[in-house]
Write a structure and sequence with these properties.
Blueprint lengths: L1 H65 L4 H10 L18
Length: 98
């Protein structure tokens, strides 16, 4: 009888240890998942902001495309953005930053 009580007591202690370990594992996993969810939520908000910024840029580009193209605009873009010049034209670049 005394041996059976000892065996039952050991089983209870072992069961309690297993349950405590299980709950500690569950709490750890929940904390890890919560941290991951928070990070993904921040990432999602960053991506939404980037999408909105890109949408604004796209709208500006669409408005630019809708405008009629004139010779002055083409010349300005060729000079400023592409660095082009007319044949035999001398272009002077001011290297002084002031």
């Amino acid at each position: 009888m005394e041996g059976a009580n000892r065996t039952n007591g050991r089983r209870r202690v072992l069961l309690i240890i297993i349950l405590i370990a299980f709950f500690v594992y569950i709490i750890y996993e929940m904390a890890t998942l919560s941290s991951m969810i928070e990070k993904k939520t921040r990432d999602l908000e960053t991506l939404r902001t980037q999408v909105e910024e890109q949408r604004i840029v796209n709208e500006q580009l669409e408005r630019t495309l809708e405008q009629p193209i004139d010779a002055e605009y083409v010349e300005r873009v060729a000079r400023e953005k592409l660095g082009l010049a007319y044949p035999n034209e001398r272009v002077f670049v001011n290297v002084d930053s002031n």
